[in-house]
Amino acid sequence: MYQEVNVPLKDPASGVVSPTVMLLKDVRTGQAGNTISLSKQIIPEGGIASVADIGSAEETGARLVAAESARKKGVGGIGGAGASFRSASQRTGPGKLLYYTAEYTKSVLSVSRVVLTTLVVADGVLFTLTAEEDQGRFDGEMGGALRDAVASFVVISQTAAVEAAAAEAAAARTAAKQSSAGAGGIAAAADAPAVKGPKKRRQ
């Protein structure tokens, strides 16, 4: 059972604004480490316009695993999370936005966990949806539901919406012109004088 919890706007120690805008936690006893979170990071001017700009889905997944391992290294860089790549995929959503999803495992306090992360860039912002579950529950009862949840994640791009509206308006104008031209042709044909054949001579 997941419930939304408050997310501090800033790190109390550093004062840095938290990129996390939503956090859900499993409130059942002993399951607090199982979470679903959404973060937003503004991309600097001249930065990536799509996740495709950082490589393929597989390359991006490998980078996430490497970064996870680097963060979790123990004293002197020994030990750590033991992160291991599982799979990666991509899909195209509304507005032709490209989504990358990576699945990998890591170790936290000797407990193996599975992480599902989906990345997408829209309107100059990198959105990251992450679901984390202990491996036993993930491979047993939760994996399918969490994969479905991540696959349903969609960002509505304002830029794409404006472009789509403009395209629809242009198509409507073109259709109206074609309809008007067709109606004019029909009217002209209706107004044209009838051509009479030669009169028959009486015998």
Automatic annotation (TrEMBL):
Where in this protein does the record put region Disordered?
A: 179-203
Tell me the GO molecular function terms: calcium ion binding
Residue intervals of the PsbP C-terminal domain: 41-155
Task: Give the record's GO biological process terms.
Answer: photosynthesis
Q: Transmembrane ranges?
A: none
Checking Pfam families in the record gives: PsbP
Compositional bias (Low complexity) spans? 179-196
GO cellular component annotations of the record: extrinsic component of membrane; photosystem II oxygen evolving complex
Q: Which domain of life is it from?
A: Eukaryota
Looking up InterPro entries in the UniProt record yields: Mog1/PsbP_a/b/a-sand (IPR016123), PsbP_C (IPR002683)
Q: What is this protein called?
A: PsbP C-terminal domain-containing protein
Species of the source: Mantoniella antarctica
Q: What is the lineage of its organism?
A: Eukaryota, Viridiplantae, Chlorophyta, Mamiellophyceae, Mamiellales
